[in-house]
Design a protein that fits this description.
Length: 299
C-alpha cells in the first residue's frame, strides 16, 4: 500500500480554526503539506470574528514541526476568497488542495425561517464554496493538478427538521461538485465531497452525549485526506464518514417505465396507474446511464 504523503503540496482548509477543519489542517501538515489555516473566528451562528482560532492552529502545526500560515477572511465574499488563495500563493507559491469546510448553522422550523437566516447560511456554505473555489481552481488549472473537497451533510442528503436553509446549501454544494468534476477532469482537478458526522460545536446538544462523545473528528479525517491525495483518482464521489464507518452516497435513478410510443401523450391517470413502477428504485443507475437501462428505451 503506498503511503499518502503531501510533501511539496500546498493546502487551504477553510474554517480550520476548530472542529473538523482544524484536524484536517493538522493531519495534512503532519504529512508534509504547507497549510493555509483560514478561519473567520465567529460564533456557531456566524456572529463576530477573531484571529485567535486560526492563530492557535497555526501555532499547533508549527509546534509539531509543520508549516502553516493563518488567514482570517470570510469565505462568503469574492474578496475574502481571493485573499485566502492569495495567502497560499504569497506564502507558498501555489495551491494544490482546497478543503471547503467553513460552516455555520442558523436553524429554525420553516414557519420561522426568514430571509436573513436563509441568505446567511447559503452565503457561507454555497456562495462561500464558490468564492474560494474559483481562484483556487484557476491556480489548479494553470498547473494541471488539484484536489478539491467540498462539504455536504446528511441534513441535505436525507433531510433534517429545522434546516431548510442549511440542507439547501449543502445539496447546492453537491450539484456544484457534479458540474465542476466534469470541467476539472482534463486538468487533473478532482472534486469530491465529504458528508461528515463528528462531535463539534455544531452537533453539541443535538445528539445524545454518549453518542457525541464517540463521534471524534479524527474518524472523518482519513476519508478527507485520501480524497486530497494524488492517489485518489476518483472525482464526484460523496463519502459519508463518522465513528469509523465509511460509505458512499449517490443520487440514483430507478429503471422507470415507458408510457408512450413517442406519439401518444400519457395521461395523469397513466402516471397514477404506474406510480409504483415509476417510483421504484430497483435496478438503480446513475442518471447518465439511463439510456442503457431498459431494452424498451432503445426501441
Ligand atoms: P465548527 O463550527 O467546529 O467549524 C466550522 C468553522 O468554520 C469554525 O471554526 C468557524 O469559525 C468557521 N467559519 C464559519 N463561517 C466562516 C466564514 N464565513 N469564513 C471562514 N470561516 C468560517 O463545525 P464543524 O462541525 O467542524 O463543521 C465543519 C463543516 O462540516 C461545516 O461545513 C459543517 O456544516 C459540516 N458538517 C459537520 C457535521 C458534523 O457532524 N460536525 C455534519 C455535516 C456537515
Amino acid at each position: 500500500m503506498s503511503r499518502i504523503d503531501f510533501t511539496g503540496r500546498v493546502a487551504i482548509v477553510t474554517g480550520a480554526g476548530g472542529g473538523l477543519g482544524k484536524n484536517y489542517a493538522i493531519e495534512l501538515a503532519k504529512r508534509g503539506a504547507k497549510v493555509v489555516v483560514n478561519d473567520l473566528g465567529g460564533s456557531k451562528g456566524g456572529i463576530g470574528s477573531s484571529t485567535s482560532a486560526a492563530d492557535h492552529v497555526v501555532e499547533e502545526i508549527k509546534g509539531l514541526g509543520g508549516q502553516a500560515v493563518p488567514n482570517y477572511d470570510n469565505v462568503a465574499t469574492v474578496e475574502g476568497g481571493g485573499n485566502i488563495v492569495r495567502t497560499a500563493i504569497d506564502a507558498f507559491g501555489k495551491v494544490d488542495i482546497l478543503i471547503n469546510n467553513a460552516g455555520i448553522l442558523l436553524d429554525s422550523s420553516f414557519v420561522k425561517m426568514d430571509e436573513k437566516k436563509w441568505d446567511t447560511v447559503i452565503a457561507v456554505h454555497l456562495k462561500g464554496t464558490f468564492c474560494v473555489t474559483k481562484p483556487a481552481y484557476l491556480a489548479m488549472v494553470s498547473q494541471n493538478y488539484g484536489r478539491i473537497v467540498m462539504t455536504t451533510s446528511a441534513s441535505g442528503l436525507a433531510g433534517n427538521f429545522g434546516q431548510t436553509n442549511y440542507a439547501s446549501a449543502k445539496m447546492g454544494v453537491v450539484g456544484f461538485a457534479n458540474a465542476l468534476k466534469l470541467e476539472g477532469a482534463k486538468y487533473d482537478v478532482k472534486v469530491n465531497v465529504i458528508a461528515p458526522v463528528a462531535g463539534t460545536r455544531l452537533t453539541e446538544g443535538v445528539v445524545p452525549p454518549d453518542i457525541f462523545n464517540r463521534m471524534g473528528v479524527e474518524f472523518v479525517v482519513p476519508a478527507v485526506l485520501y480524497m486530497c491525495s494524488e492517489q485518489c483518482q476518483d472525482s464526484g464521489i460523496i463519502i459519508n464518514a463518522g465513528l469509523g464507518y465509511f460509505s458512499r452516497s449517490a443520487i440514483m435513478t430507478g429503471e422507470g417505465v415507458i408510457l408512450s410510443d413517442g406519439n401518444k401523450i400519457p395521461t395523469p391517470e397513466d402516471v397514477m396507474e404506474n406510480w409504483g413502477r415509476i417510483t421504484s428504485l430497483e435496478k438503480p443507475r446513475f442518471f447518465y446511464q439511463l439510456a442503457e437501462m431498459s431494452p424498451e428505451w432503445r426501441r
